[in-house]
Structures are given as C-alpha cells and as structure tokens.
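Reviewers of the previous submission asked for a worked example of the structure-prediction workflow described in the proposal, so we include one complete record here. The input consisted solely of the amino acid sequence. No template or homolog information was supplied to the procedure at any stage.
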Amino acid sequence: MKKTLKKKIGFLHLWLGLGSGIIVFIAALSGSILVFEKEIDKAVNPEYYNVSTVGKTKKSIDYCVDILQKQYSIKKITRIYTFNDPSRTFQILGKDSDKKAQFFSIDPYTGKVLGTTPQESRFFVVVLSLHRQLLLGETGEIIMGTSCLIFVFMLISGIVLWWPKKIKNLKQRLTVKWSGSFKRVNWNFHSTFGFYSFLILLIISLTGLSFAFNWFQDGVYFLADGTTKKPSAKVENPTKIDPKLENATFYQSIYNKTDSIFPYTGNIQIRMPVDTINSILVLKENIEMSIPNQSSAAYFDKYTAENIEARHYELFSTGDKIRRLNYPIHTGSLYGLPTKIIAFLVTLFAMTLPITGFLIWLARKNKKKSVKQV
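From that input alone, the workflow returned the following structure tokens.
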C-alpha cells in the first residue's frame, strides 16, 4: 500500500511539475532579482537615494510638494517616503493631470528634483508585477498563486519521493555523484539539493501564499489570534466635507506629529487614501530594531491634519505582527545580507528545478521508448 501511495505521489509530482514548470521558473527568476532590489536600484539609480551634499536644514515636505505641483503638474500626492539617514532623498509618488503615477526623488535640503520617472515603467515595479501577476493583472495573480500552491505540494512530495527506503542509503541520497553519467548527476542535483533547500523554499512559498490568497492570510490570523478577523487597516475620516483649507504646513505637520507620537528613530511613510472615506495612514518603521518592518501606525484627518488614532507596534495582535514579518521573510531581508544571500541562492536553485525535472522525465520517456523498440 505504501508503494502504491508513493507511486501516486510520484505521478502527481511529475505532471503538476511539468504543468507549472514555466511559471515556477518565472517566479524564481524574478524573485531572485527582487532579493537585491534596493542594492541594485541604488547602484543603477543613485539619484533616487542619496544627495550629493548633506545640508544643515531640510526644506519642509510641503515646500517639495509645492514644487511638484507647480513644475510637474502633479494634481494628487499618493505617497511620501522620508528617511532618518541625513544623506537620503525624499521620495514622492504623485499623479499628474493625466492621472499617470510619477515617481520623484527630491533633495530635501534644496528642494531640487533629482530624478523623475513614470511609476509603471520603473524596472523593479515591472519585475514585481511579473513576479506576482505575470504582467496579467488579476488573472495572472490567480495563475501565480495557484502555481505557488502547487509548488508547496511539489516540495513536500519531493521529500517523500527522496526519502530512502532504508536508512543505510541515506548517505548516498545526501551527496551528488559528480563522476556519474549526465542522467545520474541531473537526478542527484534535482533531488539532493532539493532536500537541502527544502525548508527555505517552503518558507518562501508559504509567505508567498499570504500575498496571493486572502483565505491563506485568514488562516494565519486564525492560528495566531483565534479569529480570521484582521485588525482594520483603515480608519474612516471624521471630516466628511472638504473645508478647502489653505495649509502651507499640511504634510510637515503630519510628519512632525507622527515623529512626536512615536519618539524612536525611524523612517516615515505617508500614505494618502485612494477614496473620500478613509483617513491618511502614516507608518513609522523602527530602524533601531534588528528585525525590519516593525512599524507603528498613525491616522490623520485628510483635510485638517488632526491625529485621529495611533497604533503602537507593541500593541498589534500576534497575527498582525506575523503579517508584518511576511515581507522580510519572503524576500530574505529578515536578518540583512546573510539571509538575503541564502534566499538568493535557493531561489536560483528553484529556477533549475523545472529544467532538471523535465530532463528526468525526458530520460525516462526515452528509456521506455528504447525498451519498446527492443
């Protein structure tokens, strides 16, 4: 019976692998690039990250926004990124008169625009869309999510198929016989390194499922908090009618209040709501912590800049804290460069799995043909 079960698992492992192979290859290739997104982008586009000269005082955020509105016809600000590092630029995302998103880098000491590009044409925005949606929108997201789910099965079934019948054969399964035939080396490479990378690839895949499916994310919350109800990510704006206030320190006021509410050292991100109902969300990441993405949240009235609510990271539910860790775990940035290198190497290996798996199937198919001809 065990032999029959293993045979069925092998059948599913084979055909699901062949069916999803090209998607796994694309996901692994794009994922390996995204691991070092910040490092690569900073090297290629330094003007979006650092100023040439660190000044004594910074211009207000509103001063910089005003420049974009007057010189670049920006009608709506969507996100503002500020950094504690004095050498860093302001990064601002806004929509122009054609409702096209534009990404800007601004020298905070002079207000000079150092770089601008359409958001949708930024290299890593395209790579991320490929990684999550195959550049196909919602349809691609479903395809990629389903392939990720299949890949989780492939990893688990691969371990089942790899596991030796007798413990004395374990040592043989843990090494690659490089002196063997191409067929033997290919099989060893696929199965042996698949075993060594199993746990890391499983973690990356499971965290990827949280991005792809709400039901999976609900399951994480249920296991962590005992409920699938997630803490509200939005807070309704109390002011229902725009009073048209002329406030020259609107964004700077929000920044200063957030900095005061959360007095630790950190980077601040201002997110404007996409609708007329919800308030402004401001996140302050605590860069004093060894683990990234530990951000507290504050909410502000989109018309008056008054603080509505503050949520300290320490008071978040266990499920919400796990959700915040999902991104650094998935990208390998959890513990900086060492975990990034590990994530990069295993995703590169994952890219080879559909290829070596296909070659294993092809070799078996050709062998069966040869037997029949004899």
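Strands lie at 74-82, 90-96, 101-106, 113-118, 266-271, 280-286, 295-300, 307-311. We consider this example representative of the routine output the project will generate in years two and three.
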